[in-house]
Design a protein that fits this description.
The chain is mainly beta. It has one domain: Beta Barrel (Lipocalin), CATH 2.40.128.20. It contains 2 helices and 10 strands. Strands 4-3-2-1-10-9-8-7-6-5 form a 10-stranded antiparallel sheet. The two termini are 24 Å apart. InterPro entries: Calycin, Fatty_acid-bd, ILBP, Lipocln_cytosolic_FA-bd_dom. Keywords: Lipid-binding, Transport. This is Cytosolic fatty-acid binding proteins domain-containing protein. Pfam families: Lipocalin (PF00061).
């Protein structure tokens, strides 16, 4: 995780979003939750906690979602639509890779790639032929 250390505590705000609504439809997010998600521009922040765990915080004017995790250890994620999924975070250079499995077995992979100016999140899912790319810009 040393390669991700320079990005800890930095704020990245959503700038562009491609195929996000199609992904939300595929994972069966309801219409109201889907439209709400499409209307906001979250700010993402990755922090390291004193106990060595990490927190990924997504803040919008509507709500704040936090994922607390340890690398390579399964944890229960509560999505914005309230669904719980089992997730594992791994680090690969400047990428934070989240594999999320729902109770129905559907699996999504979210690759968060950090740079000095951008956070690019690429999402794919088993059974979906699409790819969602959301680009966040560093808040200065």
């Amino acid at each position: 995780m040393a390669e991700l250390e320079p990005f800890l505590g930095k704020k990245y705000k959503l700038k562009t979003s491609d195929n996000f609504e199609d992904y939300l439809k595929f994972i069966e997010v309801g219409l109201i939750s889907r439209k709400t998600a499409m209307a906001v521009s979250p700010v993402a922040v990755l922090t390291k906690n004193p106990d060595g765990s990490y927190t990924l915080t997504m803040t919008t004017p509507i709500r704040t979602l936090k994922m607390d995790f340890r690398l390579d250890e399964e944890f229960v994620e509560t999505r914005a639509d309230g669904l719980k999924a089992k997730s594992v975070m791994t680090a690969d250079g400047t990428k934070l890779i989240q594999t999320s499995t729902e109770d129905n077995g559907r699996r999504s992979v979210h690759v968060r790639e950090f740079t000095q100016e951008l956070l690019v999140v690429t999402t794919t899912a088993e059974g979906w032929n699409g790819k969602c790319v959301r680009t966040y810009e560093l808040v200065k």
